[in-house]
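Input set for joint prediction.
Command: fold jointly, output tokens.
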Amino acid sequence: MSLEAVNIITTALLIVGALVIIILERKFPYRKGLPIFRDGFWVDLIWYTFIQSFFLKIFIFDVILFPLDQHYKLSALHLVTNWPIVLQILFFVVTHDFYIYWFHRFQHENKVLWRLHEAHHSVKEVDWLAGSRSHIFEIIINQTIEFAPIILLGASPMVIPIKALIDALWGMFIHSNMDVKLGKIGNVINGPEQHLWHHADKKEVFFSNYATKFSLWDRLFHTTYLPGYKPDKYGLYYEYPKDYFVQHVFSVKRVDENKLRKNKKLKWYFDLRPVTLHWMAKHFPFKEKFKKYKNRLSVHFTDYKTS
Ligand SMILES: [Zn+2]
Ligand SMILES: [Zn+2]
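tokens >
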């Protein structure tokens, strides 16, 4: 199979996987009544998922990793090239997950590293999309360390899109608002129950449930917290900005977003979103059409119920 075909298939699987998780969140919610378009939804989708990922992919691969390999020519040694592709994927998934457990743990224990991680904890209504919110430098560090060995050890080029798909699907799964009971498998595999506790606004869990894919690391290093009931609050215990750029400024300097919004020089920037939305509502009145459709639908259902 060509690399192009793998890229197309993994992209399609990502979209299908996201839709399946969204549907399952509605069918089996961990917390009832969580809206799809929750606070910060568009920032996470547009800025973190599409724009940031797009530019970071170019930066990490074309600016860091490929030139690095061209210089040292390590991939020419073909250290893992002859391994079966399944073994290559398994090897990189497990080793990277072990690394991410420890790096994640240091981020919670170190004040400077916490500034790169707090964005990820700032979502108050954690759902399938919440995992995408990660500081730009956190992604640069983690993905460079993740993909460097894949390229430098001479893995099959197909490992990159397949590993990226596994990361994305597993990320959506552990953050999803799905009521999943993993039972004994939960001692090895990480699921939403444990990771949602990691996102709880509670001091007891601030230093636990660091695992991403394998909860085994939490078991081995005694950092599991699963009390048998659900958290009542999620997110940070302090105020956190809503805007993508202010979130990044906040990691360097504790600015007051409300004051920034009143700053005359920045007014044009903060007005961009409401002005664009107003323009869209005027020219593409989807919301009105949707309302009409919803009304018609509810009339239909009322008729159905009374008949
Ligand atoms: Zn964390
Ligand atoms: Zn998370």
